[in-house]
Amino acid sequence: MALFSRTPPDDSIIQGICSGGAKRRQYERQLYEKYAYLIREGMRKHNLSEQDSSIAYSDSVLTVIEHLVADRFQGRSELKTYLYQIFSNKCVDLIRRNTTNKAQVHRSEGLTEALNMLPDEARSVVQDLVMQQDMDLLRHRLRSLGDKCQRILWAWGEGYKDDEIATQLDYQSAAVAKTSRLRCLEKLRELYHTGSKTNK
Amino acid sequence: MNERIEQYFNRQLPPTEQEQFEQELLHNTQLAEEVAMYLSVKQALRTEILAERHAEWQQLAPLPAKNQPVGRVKALRSWYSAAAAVLVLAIGVVWFWLNPLAPDVQQLADAYVEENFTTLSVPMDGDIDSLKSAIQSYHDGEYTTAKLIGQEMLQRNANNADVLILVGVTALRQKEYDQAITYFHRLAAIPDLNANPGTFYEAIAYIQRGQPSDLDKARQLLQTVVSQELEGEREAKKWLAEMVDN
Q1: What is the rounded distance in angstroms from the CA atom of residue A96 to the CA atom of residue B118?
Q2: Residue of A40, A58, A115 with shortest CB distance to B57
Q3: Which residues, including other chains, have CB under 8 Å from residue A100's CB and lie 6 or more apart?
Q4: How buried is residue A120: exposed, middle or buried, by Cβ count under 10 Å (0-12/13-18/19+)?
């Protein structure tokens, strides 16, 4: 059906996203556009508003991108099916969140997975501490970091590896990028605690 | 920031150091706080990135209609137009048949396995070292080794739920569906588990095996999952709806 298709095949999108570099964004947009009709599916099947359905869709596309760059997608299912599965779950989560406790802090899939890696007791300890964090303040502090720190943490958050960060942001090597990144994390932690004390 | 934190969550710590790290978390408040901060920063970044990406993606093409056709339209004589319309309609029907909007239940099961069984979490267990080693082999793609370790563990304790999940999932990965069905069936039969995914996983194995009557068997199992509110209920409801739709 390539005759009518303007969008690139999945293989090309996957390869484009995984290969990183400046073109990654372009392939991410292609992925978003290719299956954007699912937004209507979310409205039809799950009775979501267009806004909610499109947020669930963006969240799902971002999750797929994260899985692709982390090598978690092994191609055993079609990309469309994989995205559809994640999107359906996000829609259900959104409905549940809207109908139960709107004020409840939403835990992203990545956080849940990371917590699940910990054994039960350690998980409870860390989970309690995470729940005590003021996420709004943390995001505010993140935005008030210097430009260089913001850019490096942002790239890390997007799943870029240290060697890619070094190339993109002109660090001498992956090791230098890593050290800088860890320093920025430390700086953010200090900034957060200073802010949290002054706010209390 | 303590470098071990990142190594731990990237699964780069050797097993002994990993265990030491987990133990230390229980007593070292500062380390626990650093871990909480590390995870919170990742969460905060994720939220910011999603907001930025969503805004960017919203600027792209407007919401497309379902399977919106694309192509140039030329002025044609009326009978040409009619013929073209019939042709387009025929192609559209074939296209829709080949590319259904919603994937079928087998594709959903494949995607579930892909999404949920790529990494396995390490539970607390008496035989933790062997289980960790089996899970490590699984993560390294050494399925035969993972299954062998698991099978040895089952000889010591035939009702170890974590091990039954491991060997069942490993068998699924190897496309040894008969074995997977047996292991998951044994898992489902274990009473008094807090959350028993055995019946749901058994349904997945039937769906993936895809022999005649497997889909009926899977449907029955999914109905049991829903009626008894077992683990996997959310997916089971969705898949049963897909089975009706398709």
Answers
A1: 26
A2: A58
A3: none
A4: exposed
- Considering just the CA atoms, what is the radius of gyration of chain A in Å? 19
Q: Using N-to-C axis directions, what is the helix angle for B105-116 and B198-209, rounded to 10°?
A: 120
Residue A139 has φ and ψ, to the nearest 5°, of: -65, -35
* ipTM, two decimals: 0.88
**Chain A residues with CB-CB distance to B53 below 8 A:** 28, 58, 61-62
- Residue pLDDT, tens place only, B82-135: 666 677 666 655 555 555 445 677 778 877 887 777 767 666 555 667 787 888
* Ramachandran quadrant class, A20 (left: phi over 0; alpha: psi -120 to 50; beta: rest): left
Q: Which of B63, B91, B121 sits opposite A117 (nearest CB)?
A: B121
Give tens-digit pLDDT for B206-236: 888 888 788 888 988 998 999 888 888 888 8
Let me know how long chain A is.
200
Token pair recorded at residue B117: 């069984």
Confidence of residue B71 (pLDDT cuts 50, 70, 90): very low
Q: Is the pLDDT of residue B64 over 70?
A: no
The pair of structure tokens assigned to A26 is 């372009």
Token readout for B181 is: 């069905």
CA distance A181 to A176: 8
DSSP B62-106: PPPPTT----------HHHHHHHHHHHHHHHHHHHHHS-SS--HH
Q: What's the CA gap between A134 and B41, in Å, rounded?
A: 11
CB contact under 8 A, B111 and A85: yes
Could you tell me if B48 and B41 are in contact, meaning their C-beta atoms sit under 8 angstroms apart?
Answer: no
- Band of residue B38 on the pLDDT scale cut at 50, 70, 90: very high
The Cα B199–Cα B220 span in angstroms is 10
The dihedral of CA A156, A159, A161, A164: what is its sign?
negative
Side-chain-facing half-sphere of A90: CA atoms under 13 Å: 26
Q: Which residue of B has its CA nearest to A124?
A: B26
Question: What is the dihedral angle through the alpha carbons of B139, B140, B141, B145, rounded to the nearest 10 degrees?
Answer: -100
Domains (range + CATH), chain A: 2-102 (1.10.1740), 108-199 (no CATH)
Q: What is the largest CA-CA distance in chain B?
A: 83
